[in-house]
């Protein structure tokens, strides 16, 4: 009876260890495949990115998405450089596009 309990315990420990190593192996494999730039694992990569919440247009290796992103950031920079004059959200001091930080309270604006 004691022997059977020990065997059960050992088996459970071995099973847990096996699961842990299997999980590690699976994660390693997924990371390896998701960093592979070939189209072979495109579907898997998209699935993994869906699981881990990385939007497809943000990942590296997609030239079109990167172009779009740089266009977007360029447009945002241009918009940020347009003249504006509005009260600081923290202290109410009037700030303009000339101020990277609020001259009154130092709050970062851009
Ligand atoms: Zn301020």
Task: Describe it.
This protein has 110 residues and is mainly α. It has one domain (2-81). It has three helices and two strands; from the N terminus they run H-H-H-E-E. A two-stranded antiparallel sheet has the order 1-2. A hairpin with a 6-residue loop joins strand 1 and strand 2 (94-96). The protein starts with a helix and ends in a 14-residue tail after the last strand. The structure holds zinc ion. Zinc ion binds at residues 88, 90-91, 93, 102, 104-105, 107.
Give the beta-strand count. Answer: 2
Which class best fits the helix and strand makeup? mainly alpha
Write down the overall geometry: elongated
Q: Quote the average pLDDT.
A: 77
The number of distinct helices, counting runs of at least 4 residues, comes to 3
Order of helices and strands: HHHEE
Bound ligand species: zinc ion
Proportion of β residues? 5-15%
Q: Fraction of residues in helices?
A: 55-70%
Main-sheet strand order equals 1-2
List unreliable stretches of 5+ residues. Answer: none
């Amino acid at each position: 009876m004691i022997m059977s309990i020990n065997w059960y315990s050992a088996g459970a420990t071995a099973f847990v260890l096996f699961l842990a190593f299997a999980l590690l192996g699976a994660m390693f494999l997924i990371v390896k495949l998701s960093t592979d730039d070939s189209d072979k694992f495109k579907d898997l990569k998209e699935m993994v990115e869906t699981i881990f919440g990385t939007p497809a247009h943000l990942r590296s290796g997609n030239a079109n998405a990167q172009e779009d992103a740089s266009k977007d950031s360029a447009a945002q920079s241009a918009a940020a450089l347009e003249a504006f004059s509005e009260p600081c959200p923290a202290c109410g001091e009037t700030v303009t596009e000339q101020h990277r930080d609020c001259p009154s309270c130092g709050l970062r604006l851009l």
